[in-house]
Amino acid sequence: MNSCVIIGAGLSGLIAARTLQNAGITVTVLEREQKVGGRMRTDRVQNGVFDHGAQFFTVRSERFEEIAQTWLSAGVAQEWTRGFADATGEQHEDGHPRYKGTRGMTAVAEYLAQDLDIRTGLEVKELHENGQSWEILAGDSNYAADALVLTAPAPAALALVDSNGISLPSKAREALQSISYQPCIAVMALLDGPGEVPEPGGVQVGGDPLFWVADNHQKGISEVPAVTIHAGPEWSREHAHSEDAKVSDLLLREAKDYLGTSVKATAVYRWQYSMPASPYEEQFVYAEGPPPLIFCGDAYAGPKVEGATLSGLAAAEKLLEAR
């Protein structure tokens, strides 16, 4: 293996790309969105800055701690808090650090993307295997590689494989089919004045329709009051096809106690694959090939930022071990 194409520039794809490139592999990353990061997503609404995907990350394992320390040392991540308020307003300090991106969660992804060959705004249209290598059509360009990494959520990755007639071992197919996700609708609300979200700027409501509320100004990434509202999974599923205006209106009413002022502007983002509901037990799904194909992401042996990172790392190490 001398070359690899990675589909998806989320955290798993970026970590896998860096690991492979550091080992001397020529890597190309193809990303459908116009920016890197996946659910490590920071966007603007007028002059407000919002983290509206992953809100923070924690460290549970020694291996991820080593990686997270490099982000902290590089200045792209820092500690936010050691606990949040709940729906009653009671603070829950547990001594366990929650980390944030210094300029938003996208800052970590942008740091990882440095010096990588990443092509954004490209929808992968076709996959072909010719026995020894992969051929990928994305946008109007063709890419060839000895190995392929798919980091999209399992249903989307499986649909891409199936629509192109790529055969999979039965065990790999069963593993991918076993993975399911919960959706999440995010509303970004630009406020006319300071909000009422309790310190340090986050409330873990944990219900439906209201699941999470964060003040990005208190968090330190927005110069103006900018509140992120996450709906619970059942409500998000129920309103998957509702108009944005209706979704905003309903969630703003649910979150009115945390707003405390008028709303100047809103934006809605639908995370169809927000959180794995039934993750796979191993860190990746490997189809040996030839040519090799490997699936990874936060639904493989561990969710959230840590799970996505370690899955991408394990997938890259598997490819290096097998070459």
Automatic annotation (TrEMBL):
GO MF terms, alphabetically ordered: oxidoreductase activity
SUPFAM superfamilies reported for this sequence: FAD/NAD(P)-binding domain
Cited Pfam families: Amino_oxidase, NAD_binding_8
Domain of life: Bacteria
Residue span, Amine oxidase domain: 97-320
EC number: 1.6.3.5
Statement: the UniProt record of this protein carries the keyword Membrane: no
Transmembrane domains' residue ranges: none
UniProtKB keywords: Oxidoreductase
Protein name: Renalase, oxidases 1,2-dihydro- and 1,6-dihydro-beta-NAD(P)H isomers back to NAD(P)
Species of the source: uncultured Rubrobacteraceae bacterium
